[in-house]
Write a structure and sequence with these properties.
By secondary structure, the chain is mostly helical. The protein has helices spanning about 1-15, 20-25, 30-40, 65, 70-130, 140-195, 205-310, 320-330; strands spanning about 40-45, 50-55, 60-65. Helix 1 packs antiparallel against helix 3 and helix 1 packs antiparallel against helix 5 (about 70-130). Keywords: Coiled coil.
Length: about 325
């Protein structure tokens, strides 16, 4: 795996030297896809780190800001290979233990079966001597049934023991991981103590004190995380309540908008009716004015004729009177 990784890195470095930088590795999808397909290691562009899934189901992460892109990839590849070897060795040990336990149980079962057959044969030998040769013996059938029953019980016990061994192996692997983490923590503490000028004679006491401090900080972190989860839950509840209130307000506003639209439609209809009535009244007013002018012209003609008959004015022709009436009527 290491050789394949180095070949892959050199090949893509010749193609794109910028893959040694976080931004270049994040933008080069050919390099990331090749690493994922050949080694099972993925690149997280948001957090700028490599991560892979271990055989025990857990995930392993290495940051590119601290170690660099290629060095972080080499570290996570080495850790992945080491964990795979440990897991393979553990499985081989479990298989060997299972096989040894199975063989031991089979051997004990075989020895118990042989001893029971011998004792049963010694007890049934006088009765078998008196049985005729033509009649079949039922002792062998009962022996086979008891042996089958014993085998079934042995199989069930083997299944239970295998499940117990698997659980024990998982607990042992968890304990191994815890011990490895503790060893790494102690090594880091020792390195920090050497860097700070602390003497080597005060190692165990300082380690215990630092372990207590780590537990204290872990407790504080868990409490802070719990408070954060509570705040998040409260915020989610408030958001849900705000959504319900907004939904109710939206429904009320929709009802008001519908009522306003209906009222506007009624007002538009009333305005149209008023405009129609106003137009009708205007037409009637024009007709009334025409009639008034016609009546006034007729009255003037009558007055003129009356005055003419009395000899006060000179008579005008009738055609002139008719023309004036038409002009006034038009």
């Amino acid at each position: 795996a290491k050789q394949r990784l180095e070949e892959l890195i050199q090949e893509h470095l010749r193609r794109n030297p910028r893959i040694a930088e976080p931004e270049g590795a994040a933008n080069d999808w050919l390099f990331r896809n090749a690493v994922r397909e050949q080694l099972g290691i993925c690149f997280d562009r948001n957090r700028v780190r490599w991560h892979c899934k271990l055989p025990n189901g857990r995930h392993l992460y290495r940051g590119c800001i601290t170690f660099g892109v290629l060095d972080a990839l080499r570290l996570i590849c080495e850790e992945q290979v080491r964990r795979k070897k440990v897991e393979q060795h553990r499985r081989e040990e479990e298989d060997a233990e299972d096989i040894a336990a199975t063989n031991c149980r089979k051997r004990k079962l075989h020895e118990n079966g042989r001893s029971s057959d011998l004792s049963r044969g010694e007890e049934s030998s006088p009765s078998e001597a008196s049985v005729p040769t033509g009649i079949p013996s039922f002792g062998s059938e009962s022996g086979r049934a008891s042996e089958a029953y014993a085998l079934r019980r042995e199989v069930s016990s083997l299944k239970c023991s295998v499940a117990g061994l698997r659980k024990l192996a998982e607990e042992r692997q968890e304990r191994i991981d815890e011990l490895e983490a503790a060893a790494w923590a102690r090594q880091a503490v020792a390195d920090g103590a050497e860097g700070g000028g602390v003497t080597e004679g005060a190692g165990p006491g300082q380690i215990d004190a630092l372990t207590g401090e780590v537990d204290k900080w872990k407790t504080k972190y868990e409490e802070a995380l719990e408070l954060r989860n509570q705040d998040r839950q409260a915020a989610a509840e408030e958001l849900e309540l705000a959504r319900e209130v907004n939904s109710m307000r939206e429904s009320a506003m929709r009802g008001e908008l519908k009522a306003l639209r209906e009222e506007t439609a009624g007002l538009e209809k009333a305005l149209t009716d008023a405009q129609y009535q106003l137009t009708c009244r205007k037409i009637d007013d024009d007709r009334i004015r025409k009639i008034e002018r016609t009546c006034e012209a007729t009255l003037n003609n009558v007055r003129y004729i009356t005055d003419w008959t009395q000899g006060t004015q000179v008579p005008r022709p009738v055609k002139t009177i008719e023309a004036e009436l038409k002009r006034e009527g038009g």
